[in-house]
Amino acid sequence: MRILIIEDEEKMAKALRKGLEAEEYSVSVAQSGEEGFFLASTDPPDLVILDLMLPQRDGMEVLAALRQKGVSVPVLILTSKDTVRDRVCGLDAGADDYLVKPFAFPELVARVRALLRRGRPESVDTLRLADLEMRVTARVVSREGRELALTAREFDLLHYLLRNQGRVVSREMLARDVWQETARYTPLDNVIDVHVANLRRKIDEPFGNKLLHTVRGVGFVLREEAS
Amino acid sequence: MRILIIEDEEKMAKALRKGLEAEEYSVSVAQSGEEGFFLASTDPPDLVILDLMLPQRDGMEVLAALRQKGVSVPVLILTSKDTVRDRVCGLDAGADDYLVKPFAFPELVARVRALLRRGRPESVDTLRLADLEMRVTARVVSREGRELALTAREFDLLHYLLRNQGRVVSREMLARDVWQETARYTPLDNVIDVHVANLRRKIDEPFGNKLLHTVRGVGFVLREEAS
DNA sequence: ATCTTCGATGATTAGAATGCGCATGCGACT
DNA sequence: AGTCGCATGCGCATTCTAATCATCGAAGAT
């Protein structure tokens, strides 16, 4: 994940770079508004951290120019201007977050994480395990590129298993979270097993390596290697 | 734009609702964590404003449960817990912003705007799917170049489906967003189905490949490939 | 240790019940 | 006339139930 810091104070810039690099981000620094605008618009990073008081070109100007140009990279404003008026201005100019100096570094990092998390919306929308792929809102499931026809229940079941891939899920969990039956699940009732079997027939049987394994006495897991 | 406020203190909730409604948002309020979780997960709004100290179920729990369930709606935490530790926790649990009480209302609104801005793709006047084309302001729909005569309802319905192409939309969503009937949709009431059928007759039946598919148990999708 | 036995757990199958989606038609309103 | 809301009824995919079959693994005997 690439972060661009636009900040003229050298001390602050260095501290930020060091701290963010420790978090495994790839950091570059622009020392002026002009330079920052150029870098952000020619090769947009995944996030911009923007100081407001800059030589040559004010931070607000840089932000406005970027948005004007259609650059939609997330921007976090980091400044000592702390009035409500300043914050509202910054946010309304197109910033995604506004943090006031002095600040706590852990909070900055948390906010950076939050912004970068949002940047990849499709990663939330599509779940994957090996060559099995689920696009959630479209309700489409495919394996080896071939689309599979699942019923509503089967889809919900697989959705739950994919979200908990690697974890063993019990029948009680499935009864509660997929079937929404709070209490009255009985061992006599093998609805779950039936649907698991049906799901297996569609997502596993036609293909080589099985993904849906049963853990005797406990429940089921979705994972790659055989157990 | 729909906002859900999860907040038990009645005074605060009322003030928020009033202020946000003045900004043209459609606001609903949940008085407990339990209720908030239910509302947010069954019918996700465009934004959630979440208090942390709640009866029944703590705000952090609600957030974690929502993310766990794959609900990716933007969440702004609004609380009086103001330590750095609290903020980092909240953001890392999946919140998108964190604002501390007492707060300046204009700042809240600016942050709300910033969050909602991200969710929206910029508006376009002509929507397209395969050879189906809709010019929105002109209210003209055509396929294979031939203009189609749609009624007002049919147009609104198709408009909604086109804006959400590729996503499965439920009857509840249609009842709310196309019919604006907040609550009194019943499964017995098949108005939606009738209009979907009529729409199909006009945009799909005369042509080769169908675009409007039904997803049994869930709703309808507009998309190209057959499923 | 290895083999055998047996109970418990999971898998499979088929048929029954459910509920969903769709067509149709009528009345009301514009 | 055209459009929309609403109700009824049918057909069928989906889901559930229930009964049978397969498999696993621990315990005991050899």
Question: How would you characterize the overall build of this protein?
Answer:
The structure is a homodimer of 227-residue chains. Chain A is of the alpha/beta class. Chain A folds into 2 domains: 2-119, 3-Layer(aba) Sandwich (Rossmann fold), CATH 3.40.50.2300; 124-222, Arc Repressor Mutant, subunit A, CATH 1.10.10. The first copy, chain A, has helices spanning 10-22, 33-42, 59-68, 84-92, 105-119, 121-125, 152-163, 171-177, 191-203; strands at 2-6, 26-30, 47-50, 75-79, 97-100, 126-129, 132-135, 140-143, 146-148, 169-170, 212-215, 219-222. In chain A, the strands form 3 sheets. In chain A, strands 2-1-3-4-5 form a 5-stranded parallel β-sheet, with helices on both faces. In chain A, strands 6-7-8-9 form a 4-stranded antiparallel β-sheet. A 3-stranded antiparallel β-sheet of chain A has the order 10-12-11. In chain A, helix 1 links the parallel strand 1 and strand 2 (26-30). In chain A, helix 2 (33-42) runs parallel beside helix 3. Chain A is elongated, with a radius of gyration of 24 Å. The mean pLDDT of chain A is 92. The interface between A and B is large, with 36 and 36 residues. The structure holds a DNA duplex (30 and 30 nucleotides).
